[in-house]
Amino acid sequence: MSDTPNTFSERLQAFWHGRRDPWLALWTIPLSWLFAALAALRRAAFACGLLRREQLPVPVVVVGNIHVGGAGKTPLTLALLAKLHAAGLHPGVISRGYGGTARQAQSVGAEDSPALVGDEPLLYAQAGFAVAIGRRRSEAGRALLAAHPEVNVILADDGLQHYALARDIELAVVDGGRGFGTGRLLPAGPLREPVSRLAQVDAIVINGETRPAGLPVHPRCFHMHLQPGALYRLAQPEQTAQAAAFAGQRLVALAGIGHPQRFFATLRQQGLTPARCLAFADHHAFTAADLPDDADAIVITSKDAVKWRALDNGKLWVLPVTAQLDPELADWLVSTLKELLHGQQAA
Predict the structure, then answer these.
(1) Which end of the chain is less packed: N or C, by CB atoms within 10 Å?
(2) Which residue intervals of the chain bear CATH 3.40.50.300?
(3) Quick check: pTM over 0.85?
(4) Residue 125 burial (CB < 10 Å; 0-12/13-18/19+)?
(5) Is 176 within 8 Å of 144 (Cβ atoms)?
(6) 230-319 sits in which CATH class?
(7) pLDDT by residue (tens digit) across 130-169?
């Protein structure tokens, strides 16, 4: 495994963020037009009823984005689950279960295998929340409610573009640091949907202080920040350490997430200076061969940690991050959901 992504990946990322590349433009831009046309037709088919949306019996909040790669959805979803629970609601979460091999919709337990259910669902389950996965979000929702009948609010991790699932609230997460690149759709740019789609969601959540150029004016635009916690040893979570504890050691950073460069930058901001930074694909299925043998200590993400437990060589340390939310976001979401639940009960 090299320290950097492969050459084509680097080239494509650079093109997405403004670097001239006539060869990539020649074939990706026409494909991007085709992708945009097909996506618009699909949205229109759901909007006019040609394709059916499935409605679940409890309010559904979709937490998604229009940009490929990590924008901060997982820590945001965890923070929202905690806020809703603290407000007296009974939230659960559904997920596609990316990276897992499960074919049928099913609930997820804290002891399940990440190879079966995926990394993010297992992270939610280990945090103590009700979770279910399914290739169709509606089937995951029904599996969740069957296993956890107390759930009265469902958060859908990702799925902004999964229009087959009816939703009551849409939250779109935007990476303030990366923005929208060239603003083109895949494969000529990093977007799944045009930036104008953000004007249609119920609220925008910007990860970071920077407001990206081109972001539509929206009446509900909130900010969140990722706050690093104390490093802890994966094999002994009660053992924590500060950056100074790794002075003089050969430290390697390893991440298999949507935007690993953010994780590596966070480590440096915390005073850690990795000798190498290893970036793997999002949802990568780690094996023992992925462990660098030249490291005294290896720092990983919380999301990757659920997959490393069975492979831990005693050198793995986890840097957890939590999403610090704009208080007005939680207040608005809680009040909106309580109104929806009251309306359902009155009906």
Answers:
(1) C
(2) 60-225+324-342
(3) yes
(4) buried
(5) no
(6) alpha beta
(7) 999 999 999 999 999 999 999 999 999 998 999 999 999 9
